[in-house]
């Protein structure tokens, strides 16, 4: 299945075992971006959008858009959408299953994720109030940075042994 929403294809739409690049499998999703890189006319207009297709169990891992608020609509399927509050909110998780035809809003800079909780494919279309919202994937940032964050920093921050940190680093050293 191929889909282009006027933008560039970044990942296969549906990733099954044995297909695509290995680092795509854990997320089980496909992404088509439409931003200033592919649609130069959006430069200075402050808008961009993505289409994300999820296989059953597909995950858009915890991430942050530091330069944009995100608004989305689930086109088909059902997604668990979670937003993590800040320290002053007690790091509260706000989550809800969003079904086809329903919308959601993610404030700028808050960590969030989407997870296909259904047994069928799910699709969402999201828009941003920036032509370049950027994305910071939390696991990749912590464990796949270049150069790497020193292991003692992560062992103290995460309250785990060095072996756990090294194992996690090995899983993200090549990206997602």
UniProtKB/TrEMBL annotation:
PANTHER family: GERMIN-LIKE PROTEIN SUBFAMILY 3 MEMBER 3. Belongs to the germin family. Mn(2+) binds at residues 63, 65, 70, 112. GO terms for molecular function: manganese ion binding. This is Germin-like protein. InterPro entries: Cupin_1 (IPR006045), Germin (IPR001929), Germin_Mn-BS (IPR019780), RmlC-like_jellyroll (IPR014710), RmlC_Cupin_sf (IPR011051). The lineage of its organism: Eukaryota, Viridiplantae, Streptophyta, Embryophyta, Tracheophyta. Keywords: Apoplast, Disulfide bond, Manganese, Metal-binding, Secreted. It is found in: Secreted, Extracellular space, Apoplast. SUPFAM superfamilies: RmlC-like cupins (SSF51182). The keyword Glycosyltransferase does not apply. It holds the Pfam family Cupin_1. GO terms for cellular component: apoplast. Oxalate binds at residues 50, 60, 65, 70. Gene3D superfamilies: Jelly Rolls. Residues 15-166 form the Cupin type-1 domain.
């Amino acid at each position: 299945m191929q889909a282009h929403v006027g933008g560039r294809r970044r990942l296969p739409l549906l990733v099954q075992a044995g297909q695509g690049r290995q680092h795509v499998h854990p997320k089980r999703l496909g992404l088509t971006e439409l931003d200033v890189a592919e649609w130069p006319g959006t430069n200075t207009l402050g808008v961009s959008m993505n289409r994300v297709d999820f296989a059953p169990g597909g995950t858009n891992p915890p991430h942050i858009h530091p330069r944009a608020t995100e608004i989305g609509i689930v086109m088909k399927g059902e997604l668990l959408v979670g937003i993590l509050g800040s320290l002053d909110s007690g790091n509260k998780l706000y989550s809800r299953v969003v079904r086809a035809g329903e919308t959601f809003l993610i404030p700028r800079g808050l960590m969030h994720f989407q997870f296909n909780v259904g047994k069928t494919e799910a699709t969402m279309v999201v828009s941003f109030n920036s032509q370049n919202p950027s994305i910071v994937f939390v696991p990749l940032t912590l464990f796949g940075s270049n150069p790497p964050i020193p292991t003692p920093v992560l062992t103290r921050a995460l309250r785990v042994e060095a072996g756990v940190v090294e194992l996690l680093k090995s899983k993200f050293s090549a990206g997602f």
